[in-house]
What does this fold into?
Amino acid sequence: MELVLFILFGLLAVAGALNLLFQRHPINSALSLVVVMMSLAVLYWSLGAEFLAAAQVIVYAGAIMVLFIFVVMLLNAGEEEETHGSKIAYIAGIPGAAAIFCLLSFVFLSERSRLGSTGLGGYLSGAVSNIAEISHTLFTTLLLPFEVTSILILIAILGAVVLARKEL
Amino acid sequence: MSTNLLTLLPELILTLTAVLVMLLEPLLAAGASRKPLGWLAILGSVGSGVAALYQLRAVHALGPLTGFYGTIQVDAFSIFFHLLIASIVVTTLLASLDYFPPDQVSHAGEYFALVLFGATGMMFMTSSVELLMVFIGLEISSISTYILAGFRKGRATASESALKYFLLGSFATAFFLYGIALCFGATGSTAIAAIGAGMAVTKTPLFGWLAVGMVLIGLGFKVSAAPFHVWTPDVYQGAPAPVVGLMSTAPKAAAFAVLLRFLFEAAPTDRHHWAPLIAILAVASMTIGNLGALLQSDAKRLLAYSSIAHAGYLLVAFTAPEPLAVSAACFYTAAYAAMNVGAFVVLTQLSGFSERLRTIDDLTGLALRRPGLSAFMAFFLLSLIGIPFTGGFFGKFYVFSAAVRSGYTWLAIVGLANSGLACFYYLRLLTALYARPTADTVGDSPTPRGISVPAGLALIATAAATLLLGILPNRILSLTQRAAPATVAQCPMQR
It folds into this structure.
């Protein structure tokens, strides 16, 4: 089961990354990046890192993507151009996606016994939870890097102010 | 004082001063001079140097100090680099007190804060023995130098400089981070001592070699070793002259310190793998740097190529076994810092914020108008060549003799040949300074500025340091030799 998930979402991530490179419109590229981020989140999850998966969805697929799209929109503030997607995608898009979904669900449901099962997240869940482990590391062995990161953020803010401010 | 606080003392002082400078800056009137903030920053960096000396006393009494769960290790090695960075920062700040004309620049206060924050990052790099902490320090120092490189806002070269440095620098940092990840994959730890223990027994040595290679690429970029040097000339040309003096010495010193710790403590068993790589990097940097410098007409670009070549000379030291390599590399870093910061202080004073004097032609006949500054420049250039009785000579001497003693005689010969090649362009600049100006150059070249008292102080300090390293090298060498065994002795204890 784990292998199947890995292959499915690994392929999806690679396909999304390729699409990101080959799309000519920046918004399309940004949206393929969402596909990459989400597939990576599933991979993290299947590896037992559920905290990382959640952070990936919230931070990367959520916050950072919104920022990307803001910047793209602000930079390309010119005339909006009408895009014509391919005819095949227009006609066969939704039915095709539905068909793939049905096929996958059918395979998963019928071959359930042969695929076995996988626990999504929590390989450490026997004694300590994953999140407890991370926070323990973060506030003991890696306390100093965690605290010093605040200087890093302060410099970034300072730099943004310096470089963006208008001269006298 | 608790040990944890003591291990962070210089960094704490720098950070607090920087925050204070940042908070005081809006209280000054808009067009007023930012000099008081500059003096405050100088006070803070002197304070951090004193704190480092205080640490040295504690280290003498108690042995190497560790703090924060083994993230930070203060030993003679890290204190040497703390002192070096603090003195580079003090000199740079002294030279840039009068650099920003208050009627043109509204962000001089932030300049002082950024220099201090950057120095904090560099100090963290040299004293931490945990690669994640090294990474954060590297990012702090890099991001502040990216911003400082673009400080002459509105000029095309400045924007090019900052943007190029930022994009290529981020790319290199990614390599470094990838190296850390592979280290963790191979050994299960990101602490340098634990990596060293893990590398010897790891079942996936290939990951370990890849990790060392990746870290080498990432840090090779930061010290501008060829073939990762392409950013250097453009960035140095567009950045303000005092910033170039800072960023060609202090972050490089910190990166070399990290490289020394990483290679000799985390990957000592793979020495036969990485030593040839280092030799290749060294030969490429020396040759490309010196050949490139021959073609330059802009003084800052010329010194940029020369700094690539000097990174190559320094890498030669890494081929020697540990105590020899550490002391030779430390000595060279100090000597290079003294003479290079000095040369950029002279350039800062000559051309000022508007950078009117840039090319070698502009500098022709300077000795007639500014005999004092020209004499200082000539001295620093002679030291960069490696003339005896200067720090540059003994730096090269120790580095090459270390290579010879460890069986890399061919590398030392390549280095010596390169030093001969380098004479040509340094002497070209030197003879231009003392040449009689031709009729057309004297007509349109603007008069160079006078020298301010703090900058004079900075010049005298760097010249004295260069001279002392040249005539009394034993004092500093004994300190660097003490630095070396401290790092060795620590290893078995932690394992």
Remarks:
- Chain A is about 75% helix and 0% strand.
- Chain A has a mean pLDDT of 83.
- The first helix of chain A runs from residue 2 to 22.
- The CA atoms of residues 44 and 53 of chain A lie 5 Å apart.
